[in-house]
Every structure is written in structure tokens, then in C-alpha cells.
């Protein structure tokens, strides 16, 4: 049966091409291809758009089925929508006008943790599902679950541990934050996690595991890119794809490359991605490392999402050196879909997608020497590259993923839809 589906994310891929925004938008289009009426709602602020007085909403895209919510007044600590006289009434009006059968939430940032409650209060019979993409409800440190000093990985969220990272914030506020978010998330009918690792983190935090299903992220259908001009095996080409920031392991990657250059290894590393909204100190650091590693390392800059297939086709191996618990990086799926081996950190959802010695190589995070050793193995063994490529695990296409979501939504019992 045809449904009206509102897909809500914390931004739009045309403004901020992060993995969550890209996947949410791809799934939105897949819902439409499946015959459903879908509307995409992306929340933004002054970082990407200026306010337009008179309405909380701004148009984006040519089809009239995408809209931006301008959310300039937002409490990032409580993930709370505080514009009670602007955004909240306008969200209510949008819900009443579109009257979705399903609201599919992909993030609480800028939308507000109250959003599921607003949906339930406005449309009591609406089914509410939420895909968990990161750790924002668990971690005030930008959802990274990395300690604020020393880049130490955090293994468990609790008010005491959070307070030790942010000593200027009283302990009782972290207690209230946790209670606030858990209370509002009870309104969600079902949660979906793209990895078992992320699912377990939310169970450990206190969500009911029976309400969290695992559905891996899918990729949009694309024409197979041309293999013409692919590099020769005697000088392998590595590729990095994504934003450049400290948590993506950019500095670790460049330091590993510097070590290999000093050893005399012949290789090429193409670094695709920009460094938007990063501190000057970080940009200065990577600029220095790029200068030290040229010309073996090439800074290729930002790319369009539709170009990713061709860019990955032109390398021998993709590197994902993140030093935080990445959940399900789309670039790993993109590489595997083209039978490209991946070197990735052995933590989080990355360790589920890449099995060491089978379809790629995994290394300890934040360890340039270990990463350099993995790159050396790939560079010196064409047989290893071929074996890892042959074992690549092709992900589902986004239309298959959408069907799995729709099956889950159809299975929500009426008793689950009634407001708690």
C-alpha cells in the first residue's frame, strides 16, 4: 500500500555531504522509486544558510519534494529544539499538511530530541522509525565517544565519564541529559542500526535491544565505471575519500605515507576530500604533511558524490584510517562494490565490514607505523591485492535496503504506535 513518508535528517547532502545526509537522501529517493510519496526534511543553520524571516522553512532542489528547516536556536548539550515559538509550531504545521504515515528520522541534531514527541502528539497513528548513525545521544563530544584529551577511545557512556571529559559542566547536568534523551526516545517505535557494534552500544546505554534491528546501508545503483587507465601493479595507487578532519585519521595517513617515502617505497596516494569547518591548526598541520609527502601524495580536493565510483575505480586500494568508532562508512561499501580491497581501522562498524586478510587489512587506529606496514604489504604483493579483491563483499543496493526498511515498518503493531 502506498505510504506518505517524511525522511528527516540534520542537513542536506547538497550543503554538507556527510555519510548520514547522503544515505538519508538516497533512501528517500528509493522510497519514491518504490511507489511511495516521500518528502525530505533537512535541518540546517547559519553554517550553511542564512535565516529568511517569516518562515522556518527554505526551499532546496527543483522537484518541490525537499525542504530545509532553518534551526538557528538549538541546545547542542540537550540536543533540544528551544525555538518554541518558531520551529516547533512550523514543524507541527508541516506534519498536519503532509500527514505522513511514517516519519523516518536519521538524526536529532538541529531537529531536536523532541521531534519524535511532536510527531506522536500531532499524528498519534504515525509510525516513527529512527536510524542510529552515530553516538550523539550517548556522547556530548560531537558523538565521537573519544575522550577530550589524548584521543583515547571511550568504551562506555555514563554521566561520571562524561563529566570527567567536560569538568566545567556539572555532573547533574549529564544525569539530566541522559534522562531527557531516553525519555524522548521512548516515543520511537523502532530503531535501526547499520552495524551490530552500534546496536550494542545503544543497548549498553539503556535502549531495549528488542526494538533495535540491524540493516546495513545500501548504495544507489550506478553504471560500472570504466577501468581504462587503471594504474600498473608495480606502482600501486591508494585512495582516501571523505572529509579531512582529525577524527578521520588524516594526519595518521599522511604520517604513514611519509614513513613509506623515507623507506623508498614507490606508490601513489590520492587524497580526495576537503577540510570544511576545521581549525586553522589542523589545516596548517596537514598542509605541512602534504608538502613533505608530495609528489607521492596528491591532494585532490573535494569531489561530487556522483564522481565517487570513477574515483575509486582509478585506485588499487581504499584506506579508511578513522580513529573514532565509525559505524558504517559508505566509502567501504563503495570500494567493496568495485572489488577493491580496503585498509581500515579495526574498531567499530569498520571491523564488521572489513575482515583482516580476507577482503582487506585492518590496523590499530591512530598508529601510523601499523598503517604504513599494511600499505607496504598491499604495495609489495599483487597476489595479495588480487586475493583480497576476489573476496570483496558487495553491499546491497539502496532499493533492497529500502524494501527491508518498509518490511520492518509494516510489521510495527498498532499497540506500538499508540503514544506511551
Describe the 3D structure.
It contains 15 helices and 16 strands. Helix 1 links the parallel strand 1 and strand 2. The C terminus is likely disordered. The protein folds into two domains: 235 residues, Rossmann fold (3-Layer(aba) Sandwich); 154 residues, Glycogen Phosphorylase B (Rossmann fold). An eight-stranded mixed β-sheet has the order 3-4-2-1-7-8-9-10, sandwiched between helices. A six-stranded parallel β-sheet has the order 13-12-11-14-15-16, with helices on both faces. It has a two-stranded antiparallel ribbon with strand order 5-6.
Could you give a short description of this structure?
By secondary structure, the protein is of the alpha/beta class. Helices cover 36% and strands 16% of the residues.
Strand-helix topology:
Layout: E1 4-9, H1 19-33, E2 37-44, E3 57-59, E4 66-70, E5 74-75, E6 80-81, H2 87-98, E7 102-105, H3 115-122, E8 127-131, H4 159-165, H5 171-185, E9 190-193, H6 196-205, E10 212-214, E11 237-241, H7 250-263, E12 268-272, H8 280-293, E13 297-301, H9 308-313, E14 317-320, H10 330-337, E15 342-345, H11 350-353, E16 360-363, H12 368-380, H13 382-390, H14 398-410, H15 414-417
Parallel strand pairs: 1-2, 1-7, 2-4, 7-8, 8-9, 9-10, 11-12, 11-14, 12-13, 14-15, 15-16
Antiparallel strand pairs: 3-4, 5-6
Helix pairs in contact: 1-14, 2-3, 4-5, 7-8, 7-12
| CATH architecture tag of the largest domain | 3-Layer(aba) Sandwich
Distance between the termini: 26 Å
Structural class: alpha/beta
The shape is: globular
**What's the number of structural domains?**
2
Residue-averaged pLDDT: 93
**Which spans of ≥5 residues are poorly predicted at pLDDT below 50?**
415-420
The CATH superfamily of the largest domain is Glycogen Phosphorylase B
Percent strand: 15-25%
What fraction, in percent, of the residue positions are helical? 25-40%
Number of strands: 16
Question: In oligomeric terms, what are we looking at?
Answer: single chain
Instruction: Describe the largest sheet.
Output: 8 strands, mixed
Amino acid at each position: 500500500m502506498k505510504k506518505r513518508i517524511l525522511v528527516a535528517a540534520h542537513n542536506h547532502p547538497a550543503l554538507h555531504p556527510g555519510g548520514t545526509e547522503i544515505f538519508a537522501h538516497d533512501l528517500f529517493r528509493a522510497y519514491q522509486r518504490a511507489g511511495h510519496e516521500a518528502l525530505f526534511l533537512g535541518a540546517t543553520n547559519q553554517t550553511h544558510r542564512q535565516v529568511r524571516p517569516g518562515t522556518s522553512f527554505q526551499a532546496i532542489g527543483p522537484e518541490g519534494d525537499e525542504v530545509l528547516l532553518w534551526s538557528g536556536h538549538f541546545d547542542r548539550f540537550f540536543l533540544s529544539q528551544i525555538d518554541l515559538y518558531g520551529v516547533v509550531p512550523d514543524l507541527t504545521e508541516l506534519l498536519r499538511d503532509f500527514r505522513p504515515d511514517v516519519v523516518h528520522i536519521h538524526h536529532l541534531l538541529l531537529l531536536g530530541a523532541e521531534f519524535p514527541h511532536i510527531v506522536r502528539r500531532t499524528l498519534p497513528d504515525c509510525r516513527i522509525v529512527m536510524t542510529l548513525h552515530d553516538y550523539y545521544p550517548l556522547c556530548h563530544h560531537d558523538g565521537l565517544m573519544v575522550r577530550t584529551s589524548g584521543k583515547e577511545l571511550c568504551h562506555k557512556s555514563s554521566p561520571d565519564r562524561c563529566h570527567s571529559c567536560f569538568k566545567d559542566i556539572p555532573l547533574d547536568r549529564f544525569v539530566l541529559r541522559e534522562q531527557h534523551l531516553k525519555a524522548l526516545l521512548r516515543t520511537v517505535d523502532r530503531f535501526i542500526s547499520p552495524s551490530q557494534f552500534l546496536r550494542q552500544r545503544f543497548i549498553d546505554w539503556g535502549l531495549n535491544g528488542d526494538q533495535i534491528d540491524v540493516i546495513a546501508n545500501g548504495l544507489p545503483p550506478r553504471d560500472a565505471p570504466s577501468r581504462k587507465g587503471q594504474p600498473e601493479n608495480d606502482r600501486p595507487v591508494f585512495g582516501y575519500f571523505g572529509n579531512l578532519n582529525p577524527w578521520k585519521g588524516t594526519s595518521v595517513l599522511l604520517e604513514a605515507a611519509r614513513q613509506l617515502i623515507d623507506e623508498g617505497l614507490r606508490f601513489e596516494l590520492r587524497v580526495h576530500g576537503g577540510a570544511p569547518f576545521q581549525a586553522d591548526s589542523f589545516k596548517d598541520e596537514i598542509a605541512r604533511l602534504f608538502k613533505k609527502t608530495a609528489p607521492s601524495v596528491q591532494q585532490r580536493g573535494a569531489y561530487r558524490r556522483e564522481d565517487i565510483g570513477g574515483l575509486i575505480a582509478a585506485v588499487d586500494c581504499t584506506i579508511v584510517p578513522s580513529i573514532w568508532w565509525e559505524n558504517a562508512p559508505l566509502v567501504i561499501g563503495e570500494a567493496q562494490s568495485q572489488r577493491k580491497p580496503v585498509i581500515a581501522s579495526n574498531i567499530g562498524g569498520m571491523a564488521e565490514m572489513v575482515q583482516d586478510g580476507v577482503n582487506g587489512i585492518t590496523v590499530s587506529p591512530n598508529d601510523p607505523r601499523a598503517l604504513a606496514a599494511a600499505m607496504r604489504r598491499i604495495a609489495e604483493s599483487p597476489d595479495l591485492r588480487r586475493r583480497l579483491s576476489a573476496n570483496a563483499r558487495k553491499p546491497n543496493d539502496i532499493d533492497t535496503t529500502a524494501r527491508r526498511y518498509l518490511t520492518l515498518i509494516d510489521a510495527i503493531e498498532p499497540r506500538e504506535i499508540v503514544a506511551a
